[in-house]
Amino acid sequence: MEATPPAQRHPAETSGEEALEVYNTLDVDVNEDGDLTVSGILDAFKAYCLPRKNTVFERHQFWAHPMTENISIEKYVTELRQKSKDCEFGTSEHDMIRDKIVFSLKDQRLKDRLLREPNLTLERAIDTCRASETAKAQIQAMGAANQEKAVHVLHKRKTEDQQPQNKIKQQPAQWTQSKAQNKTVGSHTSHASAQHME
């Protein structure tokens, strides 16, 4: 009796005893004719072998995910979208991500602003956070420029303040020289007067 070519054999026949035991417990889809197909069997094995999702745990991971210091809103939303994939939020996914953003914000003024929005959408929340990030960066840049200008002004004042002191320090030396010259002139005058009187 000829052996059936491997390509035509039933997948369960070539899988081994353990796979056969699993196969016997699987709910395999059939085609329109009611026959089993290789793709149907493989899909059933994939569903069996893939780790089963724990929706409660995945949602816990989503809600516990922190908004770290200095993370951009774009990056944080990307992380939340990744985590929400296994949470099975369905049509509420955008609302859940929006709520998570608001709950996680450390900037109380920004959080207050978002909470005041009557019909806050995810897009609106992202736009508001993005605008706040841009404004903070611009204010910081302006502050750095002003600080540099202030340092320059202080340095200039310090330089100007030191110049009169140098002049004052130099004056006693000039006075001393001037007094010495006066004494010399005075002594010559006295000496000349004395000779004249003789």
Automatic annotation (TrEMBL):
It comes from the Eukaryota. Residues 162-198 have a biased composition (Polar residues). Residues 156-198 are annotated as: Disordered. PANTHER family: ANK_REP_REGION DOMAIN-CONTAINING PROTEIN-RELATED, RETROTRANSPOSON GAG DOMAIN-CONTAINING PROTEIN. This is Uncharacterized protein.
